[in-house]
Write a structure and sequence with these properties.
The chain is mainly alpha-helical. The chain is built from 12 helices and 2 strands; from the N terminus they run ααββαααααααααα. It folds into 2 domains: about 70 residues; about 250 residues, Orthogonal Bundle (MetI-like fold), CATH 1.10.3720.10. Strand 1 and strand 2 form a beta hairpin. The radius of gyration is 33 Å and the shape is flat.
Length: about 350
């Protein structure tokens, strides 16, 4: 009778020992599995970081390579003309005398005109889509605006030459000359093509970029902020002016700079309507030239080393202009985000 409980105790001890051993084995296996998962995660994270870093480094390498190639290929022109190349109006392939002042002025002026017209129009479109348009109209209207960005630039150029140009020559330019002709900006003959026409075509091309991004910025404004403003008695215009635009100022500036970058490098559309004349004039109705249109018109005709090198230097100048403007824009955005003027 006494041995039976001892035997039961021994058996139960063995069972407990086996259970504890099994638990310890399971814990060891679980720890090993966790360590294996962590190792896999570490390797996966390292591979992912390496891939993303290589992508970023690839962009930097391409950027540097473009600058180096342009700099190297433009050396004959740089050595012959030097820094005055940027301020010389002459462009004479026959005597191999080249200057970039007229193309630079045309590029900056057409971009300025495009932004002058496109910014208020794009803000109005974005506000209408984000705040005022009925819901059934927002999607088709927004899609139509975005589809304008998919139209090839050569189509814009042909439309500008065959549709907008005659309208400018028959109606717009004569009206500007009759009302504002006393200003040097609206003097000269009415040919339809010129700096103003190029600026209008660029306006139509960059409106989809600015308005689409700005609309998304306005849609990100928290609804409680707008409802609080309306609750205080603000009108729609006051909500837009005091709530939506200040809240999305950085995003709006980014949209404007995106459109500006698009306008600076546009080639075919501007080539069709700018007039392609090496003439520097105060009149917006006069024909002119831009860096991109000069390259498009003359690159295939450049048969001399200095001629080709001058065109490549123009490309380098355009690259640097875009880089400087966008860099200044980034500095301004960061200072604005930090609360500094």
């Amino acid at each position: 009778m006494d041995r039976k409980p001892d035997k039961n105790k021994a058996e139960s001890g063995k069972v407990r020992l086996l259970i504890s051993g099994a638990d310890l084995t399971m814990q060891c296996l679980e720890q090993k599995r966790t360590m294996d998962i962590k190792k896999k995660k570490v390797w996966g994270d390292a591979i992912f970081r390496g891939l993303t870093a290589s992508f970023a480094a690839g962009i930097a390498v391409i950027f540097i390579a473009i600058i180096l190639v342009l700099w190297q290929q433009s050396q004959p022109s740089i050595q012959k003309f030097g820094f005055p190349f940027l301020f010389t109006k002459t462009w004479n392939p026959v005597h191999e005398q080249f200057g970039a002042l007229i193309p630079i002025a045309g590029t900056l002026l057409t971009t300025f005109l495009a932004l002058l017209f496109a910014i208020p129009l794009s803000l109005g479109i974005a506000l209408f889509l984000a705040e005022l348009a009925p819901h059934w109209l927002r999607t088709p209207f927004g899609t139509a605006i975005e589809l304008l960005a998919a139209i090839p630039s050569i189509v814009y150029g042909m439309w500008g030459l065959f549709v907008l140009g005659p309208l400018m020559a028959d109606y717009v330019q004569p009206f500007l000359k009759s009302t504002l002709g006393f200003l040097p900006f609206f003097s000269g003959s009415s040919m339809g093509i010129g700096m103003l026409t190029a600026g209008l075509v660029l306006t139509l091309m960059i409106i989809p970029f600015i308005s689409s991004v700005t609309r998304d910025v306005f849609l990100m404004v928290p609804q409680p902020l707008k409802e609080a403003a309306y609750g205080l008695g603000c009108t729609t215009w006051e909500v837009v002016r005091d709530v939506m635009i200040p809240y999305g100022r950085k995003g709006i500036a980014g949209a404007v700079f995106l459109g500006m970058g698009r306008a600076l490098g546009e080639t075919m559309a501007v080539t069709f309507v700018i007039g392609n004349a090496y003439h520097l004039s105060w009149s917006l109705l006069a024909p002119g030239n831009s860096i991109a249109s000069t390259l498009a018109n003359e690159f295939t005709e450049a048969d001399g080393q200095i001629y080709l090198s001058s065109l490549i230097e123009l490309g380098l100048v355009l690259f640097l202009i875009t880089l400087i403007i966008l860099s200044l824009a980034q500095v301004w955005l960061r200072r604005s985000a930090a609360g500094r003027p």
